[in-house]
What does this fold into?
Amino acid sequence: MGFELQLVLDLAGTFVFGLNGALTAMEAENLDVVGIVVLAVITALGGGIIRDVLIGSFPPAAFRDWRYMVVGGGAGLAAFVARHLWVRVQRSITVFDAAGLALFCVTGTTTAYAAHLGAFQSVILGTITGVGGGTLRDVVIRRVPTVLSSGLYAVPAALGATLTAVSLSFHFYSGAVAAAAALVCFAIRMVGVHFNLNMPGSEPGATCAGADDG
It folds into this structure.
């Protein structure tokens, strides 16, 4: 039952992150169908591959199980085929990103915990799994990664991962708990987007005090 839940959440996260990557490609770059599918796959599988490499799981699950590639690539193709529909719903890009973030912070944490890592290490890897694909996506299309420019991106992922790790540590993890942790991450991320909330950062054009003195 646990493995089935993990697989369902993983593939769901792969699909929505794949949609996000494809939609981002269509919005930000003039890419053909191959480029759209490639960016979809990178976004969908990047976080999980980084996690598995850090855990020492070789080859990563994305290469061991054909379903990950098919679901990620299929999401890219689906977005391309229905591109005229998606273009009308620009907000869907953010929604899919938040959904992928929420699902992967949970599955990344449970995967790390199953590899006999501690709760703290599992939270770190769960967060990395959530933000990794989006970070690679942003690097490929040459823009500042969302994780570096939006305070309420890594933070929701870390909170979702923490809830998951606590439930695993105290042995009450279940499908309901996984859904709750993912929902917390998703809700906080969407609230941050809606109200344009960010962690404190440097002001645009700000310079160090006294830099022009003398």
Summary: Residues 2-28 form the longest helix (27 residues).
